[in-house]
Design brief:
heterodimer, A: 322 residues, mainly alpha, two-stranded antiparallel ribbon, 14 helices, 4 strands, B: 182 residues, four-stranded antiparallel β-sheet, 7 helices
């Protein structure tokens, strides 16, 4: 004779088995588990390494264009407008020395040497240049770069594909790092694109065909943009292009979130930014492209690099000339 | 000890992640969906950092460009005496970038008008000093900023610059006597 079954508030009988209803503590643990799994899953460092290299190349390009005008842009004999900081620009010689020291630091960051120390110094110097001179433009790409550098300060960027990795014992490269930095930068990029799309959806200007036409004639437009604006398209083509841009930007966060669309999303978004560079003279937004490796796992990035290298080795070498 | 440190690090990084998500949602709500009755407070400086998507929110059928002017030393303060300064050499950036620098875009966005006024005075003073340092034979005593505007054309940026309808809005932004009293 079996013992009588008892039912309490938080148990239920199911096929002779009693199952406890989840308590608040269980639900909390389940969600913290999911949160930790999302942010603190471990991964090889290859995605971070590619991000570091691309961000370093971007920063080198960004600052080297000032190489010929350091005195004018960053010295106390130049023309600049500090924001919320005292006028602490150095004399021309000191400004030149600091500038080239900064370039050397960015190069060091790019090749991945002592990034734990170098990245915070780059962030501090970027903030110095931002508040002293370049921030006067109040452009989104500079603020994005600050957010990326801030996140990079607490991320392991030189685990692999770096000078530091060459100096470590061989096993150190296999240490897996938290995905936290990749998740945070990825989310920021998704907010950027999604926010831009929603902003355009509610902006009356983006409901007009003239938006695209006049954008290609404005102060940012390049000669190819003016050429495009001169093409005798009917107004519905401009309207369709305007709508296409909004829809594309709206889909980008989802494209990056869904694994099977990720690669094509990254390719199309890169083309999108190259087009902005070519038509609207805004290469600075290429900083977004530097973050795309972070949407992939380190293993995916490593395998892709291995495939590219293998393809490079297999491709026929040119026949030697006689 | 290591587990203890790891747990605290995870909590700190989670807090940073949560703060970044909060800031983005707050800025999104106030910028693009103000009709949603949810107010997530955020200091304006931090909100500005996350205000990343307002580029090209509007269009205009008018072109705008700043040009710099100087009044030669000893010349009477008369509009005809002002000489054009080499704007592209003093602010050597492409048109959009140059416009935002000469407008002091970041300062202009500030709610405190004094910040913008001080920024323009600072800009004028720096231009005055730089120009006189590099042109000791033709010094200037005052600097002005002129906003030129003219109808947009797909034929090119300057295509309709001299057409009827073009406007030149001239504004002195700095003069020497003000420097001397500072």
């Amino acid at each position: 004779m079996s013992a009588p079954r008892t039912f309490s508030k938080d148990t239920m009988a199911e096929g002779g088995r009693s199952v406890r209803a989840p308590s608040k503590s269980d639900v909390f643990q389940k969600w913290t588990g999911k949160w930790n799994e999302y942010w603190f899953a471990r991964d090889s460092g290859h995605a971070f390494a590619l991000f570091r290299i691309l961000l370093g190349i971007y920063l080198l390009g960004y600052f080297l264009r000032y190489a010929g005008t350091v005195t004018l842009e960053f010295s106390n004999q130049g023309i600049y407008n500090p924001f919320r900081i005292p006028d602490i620009a150095l004399p021309p010689v000191g400004a030149g020395f600091l500038f080239w020291f900064f370039i050397a630091l960015i190069a060091t960051f790019t090749v991945g040497f002592m990034t734990r120390i170098v990245t915070p110094v780059i962030l501090v110097l970027f903030l110095y240049y931002y508040f002293l001179s370049i921030g006067v433009r109040d452009c989104a790409y500079d603020r994005l770069t600050i957010l990326f550098l801030g996140t990079s300060c607490i991320t392991d960027l030189d685990r692999v594909w770096s000078v530091t990795a060459l100096t470590r014992p061989p096993g150190a490269q296999n240490v897996r790092v938290w995905r936290w930095g990749a998740r945070l930068i990825g989310l920021q990029i998704q907010f950027l694109y999604g926010g831009a799309a929603v902003y355009k959806m509610v902006s009356p200007a983006w409901h007009e065909a003239e938006m695209m036409h006049y954008t290609f004639c404005n102060m940012w437009a390049t000669p190819p943009a003016f050429w495009y604006a001169r093409l005798p398209f009917p107004s519905w083509v401009h309207l369709a292009t305007t709508v296409a841009v909004v829809v594309f930007e709206f889909l980008l966060p989802f494209g990056f979130a869904i694994r099977r669309f990720r690669l094509w999303t990254a390719i199309l978004a890169t083309v999108f930014h190259l087009q902005i560079t070519g038509l609207l003279n805004l290469p600075e937004f290429l900083v977004c492209v530097a973050t795309y490796p972070l949407f992939f796992t380190g293993t995916e990035v490593r395998n892709a690099a291995a495939r590219i290298l293998e393809w490079g080795r297999k491709s026929p070498s040119p026949r030697p000339s006689r | 000890m290591s587990v203890f440190r790891k747990k605290h690090r995870m909590i700190a990084l989670s807090a940073i992640a949560g703060a970044v998500i909060y800031a983005n949602v707050s800025v999104l709500l106030r910028s693009v969906a103000p009709w949603i009755p949810v107010n997530l407070p955020l200091p304006s400086e931090i909100a500005n950092t996350f205000q990343l998507f307002g580029m090209f929110g509007t269009f205009s059928s008018t072109n705008y460009q700043f040009t710099l002017w100087g009044l030669p030393n000893g010349a009477a303060v008369n509009r005809t005496n002002w000489i054009p300064l080499p704007t592209d050499k003093l602010v050597p950036h492409h048109k959009g970038d140059q416009f935002m620098r000469l407008r002091a875009n970041k300062h202009a966005a500030s709610v405190d008008p004094k910040i913008y006024n001080d920024a323009m005075m600072n800009l004028g003073e720096k231009i005055w000093r730089y120009y006189n340092r590099h042109h000791p034979d033709q010094p200037i005593s005052r600097v002005a900023l002129q906003l030129d505007s003219w109808p947009t054309s797909p034929e090119g940026w300057d295509a309709r610059r001299n057409n009827p309808g073009a406007v030149k809005n001239f504004q002195p932004i700095f003069w020497e006597d003000l420097l001397l009293t500072r």
